[in-house]
Amino acid sequence: MIPLLEANGISVRIGEKWASRDLNLTIEKGERWGILGINGSGKTSLLLSLCGLREIASGEIRVHGKSISAMEKREIARVIGMLFQDTEDPFPSTVMETALMGLHPRTGPWHRESAAEEEIARSALHAVGLSGMEMRLADTLSGGERRRLSLATLLVQDPELFLLDEPTNHLDIAQQIRILDLLGKSGKSLVMVLHDPNLAERYCDKVLMIFENGITLAGESEEMLNESNLSSLYHHPIACLESPGGRFFYPAIDPNQNKVRAPSNLEEK
Amino acid sequence: MTSKKLLPTLLLLALASLILSLSAGSVSIAWEKVLYGSGLDYEVFMQLRLPRALNAFTTGALLAMSGGLMQVMLRNPLADPYVLGISGGAAVSALLAMLLGFVSPQFASFLGAMLSMLLVFGISGVAKHTRLLLTGIVVASGWGALIALILSVSPDAQLRGMLFWLMGNLDDSGSPYPGLFALFFGLLFVLPLSRDLNVLGRGDRFAMSLGVSVKTLQWKIYFICALLTSVAVMTAGSVGFVGLIVPHGLRKMGGRDHRILLPGSALLGGTLLLLADTLARTIAAPQALPVGAIMALIGVPIFLYLLARP
Question: CATH number for the domain including B134?
Answer without folding.
Answer: 1.10.3470.10
